[in-house]
Amino acid sequence: MRTDSITIEVIANGLKALIYEMDAAIERTAMSIIIREQHDFGMSLVDHRGWVVTGTAFAGQTLAEYAATHPVEPGDVIMFNDPYLSHGEISHLGDTMVAVPIFWEGDLLAWGIAWGHHMDIGADAPAAMPTQATEIFHEGLQIPPVKLYRQGVLNEDILAIVARNSRTPEMMVGDTLALSAAGKIAEKRLHEAVREVRRRGGARDVPGALRAGTRDDAPPDRAAAGEAAQLRGRARQ
After folding, report:
1. Which residue in 99, 92, 90, 117 sits closest to 171, CA to CA?
2. What sequence ranges are listed for the domain Hydantoinase B/oxoprolinase (predicted)?
């Protein structure tokens, strides 16, 4: 099915605003100076296959694999920082990734992702940058993909473990929740964009419209390649 121009236009502008709003939310709500002032953080929206739609390219493969082997439900929030389990999509333990699954009509549509470099994650030296490290265990706490939220309920045990392993527990908790809030903004705004498409009588193939916008030189939906170029161009403005 060819994605119509109404769908492309509405979703494109929604994606552009979505990333800007996630950025602003993290800057306003994060506690550590590394994230809030040095801007060592990033955002992304990937589709259910892990392909980047807009934002920085990271974590897509990890999330696609997680969803294929673990139940993922609305209200869940996934967090992780392990470079090995993420195929190098995360560069070191100081960068924690938080991802919110976005559903539409019962199906996983996309992920709203935010990552940030924490002030301290229990490494040999603060800021998770020990110059004398010889193995990953010197870099701090390793977090495999786990559910920070399960169906909208915060997993206090996970948060307690993370805080206990940081020299700056309040900042660690505050920054983690700020990243989670940014992912939830992505969920809210993408839902709004899809509803606007429906209100204007756009195509009902929402996953197809999102696929058309993935940042790839050869989209699987080749019939939508022209619209994909339009969507990518608008999302990057």
Report:
1. 117
2. 4-197
In one-letter notation, the amino acid at residue 195 is: R
Tell me the C-alpha to C-alpha distance, in Å, between residue 167 and each of 46, 55, 59, 123, 175. 33, 31, 26, 9, 14
Question: Residue 42 and residue 170: Cα distance in Å, rounded?
Answer: 21
pLDDT digits (tens, 9 = 90+) for 13-65: 778 788 999 999 999 999 999 999 999 999 999 999 888 888 887 788 999 99
On whether the CB atoms of residues 165 and 121 are closer than 8 A, the answer is yes
Residue 215 has pLDDT above 60, yes or no: no
Copy the structure tokens of residue 135.
């193995």
Q: What percent of the chain has pLDDT over 70?
A: 78
The first and second tokens of residue 222, run together, are: 């080749």
d(CA 108, CA 146): 18
